[in-house]
């Protein structure tokens, strides 16, 4: 993709359009960069909160026996950890990057719907306050798992309606964010920026946004049915009233599987920006990457029941969902192949973003392969609901989505702040994260295969050793993340000045703007040839 | 692609075999409860509950001070194991009474969800005699980790003897319903029943867990009218983890546990009349026969 030098010469006229001063700037902002920053900071804050909950879980699991917390509180920790990490960290993190980068990548001054943008962010602090405050209610927070399966979820005490309402708010926020992203990309591209010239991060976000619009209302429907079952005497999920508890699982996972791709597709997009930059080569197989992403998104609507093979489906249903699940390995394989082919014979350098990206490709593939193992129905009868599943989805979500968000943050921090981050600290952060994420999650594969169920606060002594290793990894990984917090603060406050292009191999409109970029990215549309 | 097909073909073959639950030699109905299992031998006409063994139950309480390493088969031992003959095709019919559970013995190579209101079937044929252990695999609330499965596979003859023994036990327990017990007898029995069935939530000292599970020590129910108290135990409380124990325990066990709750932790001091202190199996049977109030 070749671009002209951007028309940013009129910057001097811009200062009277600058931000308001003080708190009001953040409350009422309609600026894509401010809102992007808010999303990213919120995501980082929730990462620490959700991480602290994970450490409570790992602390209790360090040794057999119950040493620290009641089983009910333990269950609410696992439940909240999942809800916070999914809806409070990975999704807002990806939306934050989209807010910052999409207008700059497509040559637009801002997002298409700036006020909607403000609203979709400011719903989130309320939603998560509501969710977190349920911990103080009689009966404690939600403890039925983030999947909220009835009838267990219906036993939740006073927290019940608050959790449902919080989930509704999170869904509302994501759907509005998605609408905004689609409207921006479809309407505000610079002249000459055709769809097949869009950076891959933008492409993955188009597809993610459509997934969000299709999937989130399904979740809203499912939790609303829970609400009416509890308070208005309906029996959607109560067999005694003619309903079916498994119906909830079908509806939930019809949302839940596309949700998995909502969490990972933006990550694919980030990795597809990072690898070409540090390989100093264009992305290998751009077109096939776009089609593979679309294929994954399409297939994601036909595989939901692989999350529930053990509920007792008819044989033909089990076979269909097994074959459909296995077929997803094809487009995913295309992507992995293209990333490796991009690196092949490139002039590679390993700055922190590239380290995270390479780790992503390797560790995500481990998660992908364990996913394939889980997709084989007869094998899943054994692996289902064990620590093997826990290891699988953490491998795709932590060294997958989270590492990609980290890679994106390191790639773009110099652009956002105008300062280079501390490369030594960045590399230290990477290596500690990389080592301890494996110490944390790899032993969990063995635990699952040895027969340890998931979501238990206490276990038979035969599982003690691997749990101990896993907990050590958890604490070391958690503490390593504080390096990142320190590094971000340091980078915002000062440091070596970043050039406009920042990275030698960086290509694209966003790198033609100064670092940091002007408040309204492109006031005159650049022309893309 | 070829690799995927190479994986799909044997997977399909195995799956078809696993789902062929027809023509069993015997059937066992497995019912999940919060938090124990019930096994009904449909062809032999008896059934029983299988709960976490007492020593594990004691050691697994928060800060119990008992090292799990000193407890044999910690969390993987039950009071009454499931016994099956070797070399027979057994059909397991799984269901649940309250929330979804999942019955899983890893050595059998599968797990199957136990869903309230629905019955799933799966099968196994065990060739090697021995003890096989497993756990509930679907999150089912507070004590999800504490409802293990122990399956003892024995030779045909030993199995036959065991069945006769269990049928006898079932008859004995039915005849208990007409006996009258002393307060001490009821208290001793009641404490056992309480430890197995109630202490997970209401706690050994009857203090409950504030906010989550109500206290029984000094509670209005345990020190109020006997019949009201019995009603709660027999029919449970809808929408909470308080199960209907009327269908789970025998009349004698119910009478014992209710009596225990009314006399333990100083509750007897608060009862207005001595007659309200204890219930007998016959009273419980009468109340059960009246049906849901």
Number of strands of chain B: 10
Query: Which regions of chain A have little confidence, pLDDT < 50, spanning 5+ residues?
Result: 1-15
State the end-to-end CA separation of chain A.
Answer: 8 Å
**Radius of gyration of chain B over all CA atoms, rounded:** 21 Å
Strands of chain A, count? 0
- State the secondary-structure class of chain A: mainly alpha
CATH third-tier fold name of the largest domain in chain B: Immunoglobulin-like
Number of self-contained structural domains of chain B = 2
String of helices and strands of chain B: HEEEHEEEEEEEHHHHHH
Figure out the total of helices of chain B. Answer: 8
- What count of domains describes the coordinates of chain A? 1
Describe what you observe in this structure:
The complex is a heterodimer of chains A (529) and B (293). Chain A is an all-alpha fold. Chain A has a single domain (9-512), classed as Cytochrome C Oxidase, Chain A, CATH 1.20.210.10. Chain A contains 15 helices and no strands. Chain B is of the alpha+beta class and 293 residues long. Chain B contains eight helices and ten strands. Chain B is globular, with a radius of gyration of 21 Å. The model of chain B has no long low-confidence stretch (mean pLDDT 88). Chains A and B meet through α3, α9 and α12 of A and α1, β7 and β9 of B.
């Amino acid at each position: 993709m070749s671009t002209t030098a951007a028309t940013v010469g009129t910057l001097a006229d811009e200062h009277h359009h600058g931000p308001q001063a003080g708190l009001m700037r953040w409350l009422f902002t309609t600026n894509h960069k401010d809102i992007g920053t808010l999303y990213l900071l919120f995501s980082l804050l929730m990462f620490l909160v959700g991480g602290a909950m994970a450490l409570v879980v790992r602390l209790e699991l360090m040794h057999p026996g119950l040493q620290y917390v009641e089983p009910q509180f333990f269950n609410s920790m696992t439940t909240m950890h999942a809800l916070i990490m999914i809806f409070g960290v990975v999704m807002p993190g990806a939306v934050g990057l989209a807010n910052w980068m999409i207008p700059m990548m497509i040559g637009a001054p801002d997002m298409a719907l700036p006020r909607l943008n403000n609203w979709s962010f400011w719903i989130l602090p309320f939603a998560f306050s509501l969710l977190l405050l349920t911990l103080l209610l009689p009966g404690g927070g939600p403890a039925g798992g983030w999947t909220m399966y009835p009838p267990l979820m219906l036993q939740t005490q006073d927290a019940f309606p608050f959790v449902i309402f919080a989930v509704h708010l999170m869904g509302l926020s994501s759907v509005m964010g998605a609408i905004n992203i689609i409207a921006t990309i479809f309407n505000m591209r610079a002249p000459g920026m055709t769809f097949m010239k869009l950076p891959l991060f933008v492409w993955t976000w188009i597809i993610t946004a459509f997934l969000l619009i299709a999937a989130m209302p399904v979740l809203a429907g499912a939790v609303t049915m829970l609400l009416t079952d509890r308070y208005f005497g309906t029996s959607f999920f109560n067999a005694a009233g003619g309903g079916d508890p498994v119906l909830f699982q079908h509806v939930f996972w019809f949302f839940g599987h596309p949700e998995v791709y909502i969490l990972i597709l933006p990550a694919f997009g980030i990795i597809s920006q990072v690898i070409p930059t540090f390989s100093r080569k264009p992305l290998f197989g751009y077109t096939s990457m776009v089609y593979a992403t679309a294929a994954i998104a399409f297939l994601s609507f036909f595989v939901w029941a692989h999350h529930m093979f053990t509920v007792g489906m008819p044989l033909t249903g089990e076979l269909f969902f097994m074959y459909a699940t296995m077929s997803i390995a094809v487009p995913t394989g295309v992507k992995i192949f293209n990333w490796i082919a991009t690196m092949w014979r490139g002039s590679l350098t390993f700055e922190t973003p590239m380290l995270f990206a390479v780790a992503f490709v390797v560790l995500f593939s481990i998660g992908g392969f364990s996913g394939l193992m889980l997709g084989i129905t007869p094998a899943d009868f054994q692996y289902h609901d064990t620590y093997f599943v826990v290891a699988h989805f953490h491998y795709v979500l932590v060294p997958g989505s989270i590492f990609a968000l980290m890679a994106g943050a390191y790639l773009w921090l110099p652009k956002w702040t105008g300062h280079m981050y501390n490369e030594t600290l960045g590399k230290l952060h990477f290596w500690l994260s990389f080592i301890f994420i494996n110490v944390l999650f790899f032993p969990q594969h063995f635990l699952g295969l040895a027969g340890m169920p998931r979501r238990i606060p206490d276990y038979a002594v035969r599982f003690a050793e691997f749990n101990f290793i896993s907990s050590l990894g958890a604490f070391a990984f958690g503490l390593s993340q504080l390096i990142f917090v320190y590094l971000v603060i340091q980078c915002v406050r000062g440091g070596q000045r970043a050039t406009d292009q920042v990275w030698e191999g960086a290509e694209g409109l966003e790198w033609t703007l100064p670092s940091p970029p002007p408040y309204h990215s492109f006031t005159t549309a650049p022309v893309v040839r | 692609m070829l690799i995927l097909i190479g994986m799909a073909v044997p997977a399909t073959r195995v799956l078809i075999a696993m789902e062929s639950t027809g023509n069993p030699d015997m059937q066992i109905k497995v019912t999940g409860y919060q938090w124990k299992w019930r096994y009904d031998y449909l062809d032999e006409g008896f059934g029983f509950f299988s709960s976490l063994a007492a020593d594990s139950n004691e050691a697994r309480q928060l800060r119990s001070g008992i090292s799990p390493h000193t407890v044999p088969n910690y969390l993987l031992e039950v009071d009454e194991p499931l016994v099956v003959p070797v070399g027979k095709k057994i059909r397991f019919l799984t269901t649940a009474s309250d929330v979804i559970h999942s019955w899983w013995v890893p050595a059998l190579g599968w797990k199957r969800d136990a869903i309230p209101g629905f019955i799933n079937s799966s099968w196994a044929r065990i060739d090697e005699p021995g003890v096989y252990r497993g756990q509930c695999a679907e999150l089912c609330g507070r004590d999800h980790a504490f409802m293990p499965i122990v399956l003892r596979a024995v030779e045909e003859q030993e199995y036959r003897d065991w069945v006769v023994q269990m049928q006898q036990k079932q008859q004995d327990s039915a005849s208990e319903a007409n006996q009258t017990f002393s307060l001490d007898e009821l208290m001793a029995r009641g404490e056992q029943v309480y430890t197995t069935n109630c202490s997970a939530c209401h706690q050994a000292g009857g203090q409950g867990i504030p906010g989550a599970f109500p206290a029984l020590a000094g509670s209005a129910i345990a020190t109020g009218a006997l019949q009201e108290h019995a009603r709660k135990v027999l029919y449970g409380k809808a929408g909470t983890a308080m199960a209907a124990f009327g269908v789970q325990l025998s009349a004698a066990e119910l009478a014992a546990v209710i009596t225990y709750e009314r006399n333990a932790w100083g509750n007897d001091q608060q009862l207005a009349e001595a007659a309200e202190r204890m219930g007998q199996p016959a009273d419980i049977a009468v109340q059960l026969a009246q049906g849901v109030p």
